[in-house]
Amino acid sequence: MSAVLAPLVPVVPAPARSLSEHSVVFVHAHPDDEAIFTGAVMHALARAGARVTLVVATDGHAGQDLAGEGRHVGRVRAGELQRAASVLGVHELVTLGWGDSGLGTTRPGQALSEQPVQAVAEQVGEIVQRVGADTLVGYDEGGIYPHPDHVAVHRIAAQVARNQQGLSYYEATVDAETLDRQNVRHLVLGANDAVRRTGRASGPVGVPKARIGAHYQAGESDFAAKVAAMRQHSSQIDAAHLQQDGLHSAYGVEWFTRSGPAGAIDRLTDR
């Protein structure tokens, strides 16, 4: 599979204090994951001058289209992803083009979860080297929640971190204990319910609080950008969900584990 590269122009100004020496690669499974799990951090890093590269592994074609109009979901989500990436200030969007594995018992051709980990890790590793990344972001070992593509992203990003020693490697996660206490039910909890309905093994989402190595509390600008990016994914995220009171309590914090040296996210959270 060849990567499709889509350079994007940053849409946010950099403040006086800059993280411009950092280059950060985020690896996500489907269009919309980038906004839901790391949108505030991505926007904050871009706003602070870091180079942000977004790698999305699948086309998301197995997602249910809320519009219900029989559209080609993969093409719809590609457009949504482009718009969301622009809102977040992403410098470069790379789509690997693997198939969305879905939650069914059969896998589509070229499904991400069926690919050799090392082969896809080499794709991502080439991007990391090309953009001179010092920081890499993947998913925790459970995939944040156990969708086959999310678990695959964990294995792929972790392999890249092993292949390229010295990277600051973060894994996006959630503090499920905190989410369970919010008025607004985070989308990852509903996604986990969907996994459970298929009969797959489904444990708690995220990781225990004690394992969280960094968290980012989004300020007004970064939270507004995150919600605006989520709103671009209208085929997957109901607009009514984003109009609830208390939305910040569910989506205003982003959590990460870390291995390797402290990197751009630590610099950001120390500011």
Verbal overview:
With 271 residues, this protein is an alpha/beta fold. The chain has a single domain (4-270), classed as LmbE-like (Rossmann fold, 3-Layer(aba) Sandwich). The chain has helices spanning 33-47, 73-87, 117-130, 148-163, 176-179, 187-197, 220-232, 247-251, 264-270, and strands at residues 4-7, 23-28, 51-58, 92-98, 135-139, 168-173, 214-217, 253-259. An eight-stranded mixed β-sheet has the order 1-4-3-2-5-6-8-7, sandwiched between helices. Helix 1 (33-47) runs antiparallel to helix 7 (220-232), helix 2 runs antiparallel to helix 7 (220-232) and helix 3 packs across helix 4. The longest helix is centred in the middle third of the chain and has 16 residues, at 148-163. The radius of gyration is 17 Å and the shape is globular.
Topology:
Layout: E1 4-7, E2 23-28, H1 33-47, E3 51-58, H2 73-87, E4 92-98, H3 117-130, E5 135-139, H4 148-163, E6 168-173, H5 176-179, H6 187-197, E7 214-217, H7 220-232, H8 247-251, E8 253-259, H9 264-270
Parallel strand pairs: 2-3, 2-5, 3-4, 5-6
Antiparallel strand pairs: 1-4, 6-8, 7-8
Helix pairs in contact: 1-7, 2-7, 3-4
> N- to C-terminal separation?
40 Å
As residue ranges, the low-confidence spans are 9-17
Q: What is the level-2 CATH architecture name?
A: 3-Layer(aba) Sandwich
β-strand number: 8
| Spatial strand order of the main sheet | 1-4-3-2-5-6-8-7
How many DSSP helices? Answer: 9
